[in-house]
Amino acid sequence: MDRTVITTDKAPKAVGPYSVAVRTGNLVFTAGQIGLDPLSGALVPGGVEAETRQALNNLKHVLAAAGSGLERVVKTTVFLRDMADFAAMNAVYAEFFPENPPARSAIAVAGLPRGGAVEIEVVALVE
User: Fold this and answer.
1) Domain boundaries in the chain?
2) Nearest to 56 by CA among 78, 41, 27
3) Cα–Cα–Cα angle for 25, 9, 23, rounded to 5 degrees
4) pLDDT higher at 15 or 28
5) Tens digit of each residue's pLDDT (9 = 90 or more) over 1-15
6) CB neighbours (10 Å) of residue 120?
């Protein structure tokens, strides 16, 4: 099966030895995205809501580069620094998946890159 590394200038670059996404067959697997502004490389201000919005916008651009989109996402994994932020993250998340949302797991973790409040990865279908 083919394996294609996905890149885009519209989302933050990988900051280590990994790809932002890999496409194989009719699926694309993304690395986790935190709320980094792709232009400045800095975490967006505003807490978990702003970081969730930026992470999902970053994922939207990664998916577009792979020939997919948020409407084609079948599974997400959300990593939260603090499960007390779940409701705030969930409210923003619902804006991006208003109908027929994908399957999702949400996990509290000890820490995230750059001190972020949230990280999100997805698996999506490719047309």
Assistant:
1) 4-125
2) 78
3) 10
4) 28
5) 799 999 999 999 998
6) 25
Of the candidates 123, 57, 47, the one whose C-alpha atom is nearest the C-alpha of residue 82 is 47
End-to-end CA distance of the chain: give it in Å, rounded. Answer: 16
* Secondary structure (3-state) at 124: strand
Cα-based distances in Å from 61 to 1, 66, 94, 107: 24, 9, 18, 24
Helices and strands per DSSP (H, E), number in the chain: 2, 6
pTM over 0.85: yes
Cβ-contact 33, 119 below 8 angstroms: yes
> Token digits for 114?
């750059």
Domain 4-125 superfamily per CATH: RutC-like (3.30.1330.40)
Q: What does the alpha-carbon distance between residue 62 and residue 8 come to, in Å, rounded to a whole number?
A: 6
